[in-house]
């Protein structure tokens, strides 16, 4: 069964307040997957064999399927869809070969029948022993042709079954992906109600106001803060992630050393609550940055309020 794998980066980027989605550029020429390489080989073998003459329609179908796989690879690289389409293309090429073998067997049998009748007329002049030997040889030829024809029919049936199975798996994968995207959208919509979410070069950044999480000058989480962080933890577990970094930030008032200490304690409090909600300890760490990374001016009450915050930086799974 083909299992969907939803990227948290794409899920977050598509759903957070119409945030800007960065363009993804290819980092070099993609290596074709083994399925596409096998499909190319299968088509080349079929095109070089009797299928060109004996099964041109099936060979053309195989060529179209391979072209589709090549286009998908050129467009999206060696993803699962490319592999699935390439797999179908390989099966189509094998069907063309099997159909050519079946047609060849039919022609061989027809020729054997024709030769049989022709030789019977000519054999009137031959001895009884000679005619019997030739009869046996012809029967053997006909029997071999029948066996070849049956084998070709079996091969075609097996290839068609595999294609139908692949189509069914693709349909199942598509439905599962749609359900996963629906679930991600619901989780992110809920997350947007309690925090600001945006995508930056360092990862997906979830920002929570310090005034919502803590009392002034304190590092103990408020009851409402625990509820909000529980929802954040649920959304993160639903999406999957590689690692989390919790950063504590303050405004510039007070001593820098005190701000550094307070910001670290607040980051650790957030981290510890996320741990109680099932976030793995080896995937999350806390850091206090004090007032070193303001997002607004500190000379206004509003600016200082914006600077007093906790940020959760999510590194998505690759």
Sum up the structure in keywords.
single chain, 318 residues, alpha+beta, 10 helices, 5 strands, disordered N terminus
Can you put this structure into words, describing what you see?
With 318 residues, the protein is of the alpha+beta class. The protein contains 10 helices and 5 strands. Strands 1-2-5-3-4 form a 5-stranded mixed β-sheet. Strand 3, helix 9 (256-276) and strand 4 (284-288) form a beta-alpha-beta unit. The longest helix has 65 residues, at 128-192. The chain is rod-shaped and about 120 Å long. Mean pLDDT is 84; it is low at 1-27.
Give a summary of the structure in a few sentences.
The chain has 318 residues and is an alpha+beta fold. It has helices spanning 8-15, 34-48, 51-54, 56-76, 80-122, 128-192, 210-213, 223-239, 256-276, 301-307; strands at residues 196-200, 203-209, 243-249, 284-288, 309-315.
Secondary structure tally: strands: 5
Put simply, the count of helices is 10
From the alpha-carbon coordinates, what is the Rg to the nearest angstrom?
34 Å
Output the helix-strand order. Answer: HHHHHHEEHHEHEHE
Largest sheet: 5 strands, mixed
Classify the helix fraction into a percent range: 55-70%
């Amino acid at each position: 069964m083909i299992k969907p794998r939803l990227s948290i980066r794409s899920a977050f980027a598509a759903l957070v307040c119409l945030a800007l989605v960065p363009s993804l550029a290819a980092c070099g020429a993609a290596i074709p997957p083994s399925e596409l390489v096998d499909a190319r080989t299968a088509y080349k073998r079929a095109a070089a064999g009797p299928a060109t003459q004996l099964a041109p329609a099936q060979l053309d179908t195989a060529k179209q399927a391979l072209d589709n796989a090549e286009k998908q690879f050129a467009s999206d690289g060696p993803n699962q869809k490319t592999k699935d389409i390439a797999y179908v293309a390989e099966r189509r090429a094998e069907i063309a070969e099997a159909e050519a073998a079946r047609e060849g067997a039919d022609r061989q049998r027809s020729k054997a029948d024709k030769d049989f009748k022709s030789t019977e007329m000519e054999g009137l002049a031959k001895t009884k022993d000679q005619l019997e030997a030739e009869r046996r040889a012809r029967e053997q030829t006909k029997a071999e042709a029948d066996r070849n024809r049956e084998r070709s029919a079996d091969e075609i049936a097996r290839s068609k079954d595999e294609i139908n199975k692949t189509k069914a798996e693709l349909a199942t994968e598509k439905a599962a992906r749609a359900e996963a995207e629906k679930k991600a959208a619901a989780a992110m919509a809920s997350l947007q109600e309690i925090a600001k979410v945006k995508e930056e070069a360092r990862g997906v950044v979830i920002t929570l106001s310090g005034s919502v999480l803590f009392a002034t000058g304190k590092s103990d989480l408020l009851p409402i803060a625990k509820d909000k962080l529980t929802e954040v933890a649920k959304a993160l577990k639903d999406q999957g992630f590689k690692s989390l970094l919790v950063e504590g930030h303050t405004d510039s008032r007070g001593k820098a050393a005190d701000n550094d200490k307070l910001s670290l304690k607040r980051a650790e409090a957030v981290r510890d609550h996320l741990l109680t909600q099932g976030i793995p300890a080896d995937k999350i760490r806390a850091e206090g940055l004090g007032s070193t990374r303001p997002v607004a001016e500190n000379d206004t009450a509003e600016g200082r309020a914006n600077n007093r915050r906790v940020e959760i930086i999510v590194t998505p799974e690759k």
